[in-house]
Amino acid sequence: MKNKIGIHLLIGLTVLSMLPLGSMGQTPLTLDKVIRLAQDSAITVFQSQQEYRSQQASYEAFEALRKPQLSLKVVPNYSRIVSDPSRDYVYLRNFDILSTSAQLRLSQKVLTFGGDAFIGTQAIWSEFFRDDAAGHPRQFVASPLLVGYSHTLLGYNPFRWEKNVEDQRLKAAHQQHKYDLRCIAEEAAVRYFRLARQQRLLQMRLEELKMNDTLLAIAREKASIAIVTLAELRSIEVQQQNAVNLLEVTRQDELKARTELASLLRMKQIPADSPLLTIPDIPSPIRYTPEEAAMLAQSNSPAYQHQLAELTEARHQEDKTNKEQGINVGLDINLGLQQVNTTFGSAYKNQQLYALGSVSVSIPLMDHGAAKKKHAAATAWLERQESALHEVERLLAEDATVTLQKLNSSRMLLVSTQQTADLAEEVFNETADNYANGLCDINTFTLAQTRWATAYANYLTVLEEFWSTYYHLQTLIQYE
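-> structure tokens emitted (480 positions)
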């Protein structure tokens, strides 16, 4: 009767050990709290946030430079020309010039066609120091109105390409920051459920050892009165030693899982007697097809956006080198009013209109194929970036599809393993009753116990795999 009570007590302890209980008087870590702590303390999140801020500031500077720019340019200048005394030419005589020019200019990039346009005003003061400059030692040049436009390569508009690239890089930086946050959440969830599994396995191994210690004590008592054989006693001793070894291995795994989670959270250590980590309720099934998951993964991937920016830049260079290998036509037009006088006020009177215009035509008659080779290099690089983008698309689609399939199969397997663990528990309870009443031998009892422990361990493994896959899919497609 005493033996039967002892067996039932052990069964009850083992059943309790496999339930998600928490220690009294301690606040357990929750998954949401762990994710929040990890995101607050992760160095990678801080780095990606600073990278995004840097890219955002660069983008704002880029946008600011596309707006009208007002600048004041003052250039003082001193020149001294030393002539050859043996040659009596006017332009070779010694003289010094001190001059200062001041120009106020409003410039604007012509975003539609390319090139730069400006409007402004300018004044130049010059002081001559030479023997024959007594009559006109000072000169002022006044230009109250200057208008100009220049384009180095007609038909090529770099501003349109630059805008596309900068927009894509800013979007990539923003997506990278959000992606890093999701990666930290995924890593936190992986370590959280790893520790949750190891905690429950350790609790199970502890109760297994207690049970085997009690079984060994009962068997030794029975062996003293010849109720059990020596072989049965030795079998229980082997089982008890196996339980000790399994407990030590599980203890090390649990310590490793606690250390890894504490390291991620920047904690000194998670106490060994801390409450069991809670397991959230299983979320509802994901209603995405593989094609939808692949498209979401692509639209939320910073790697895809970075590669798209690289491809746009490659297209930019291909377009530029393509136009440069033919006839290069540049345009420079300047219109304005100008007058020269010995006094500053008089220089602004009787202004004369002037117009300067130039069209430069450059034809590479013999460049040994340099322009064509540049275009060939840009074309090859463009093809390389296109193939890289296709590869990123393929990898993202593969990852999203496989993860979605794995999540669905893990969900079904989770139900199956839970049912198996429940069934193995029932069989073990019945076998324990039979062994206590002498209706089965120790081998049958040990087999039932092993099957139960294996089924429960399998259930915990599948549970961890399910949540790890769930958060990986969340990282890829950013669903809530």
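DSSP finds ten helices and six strands in the chain.
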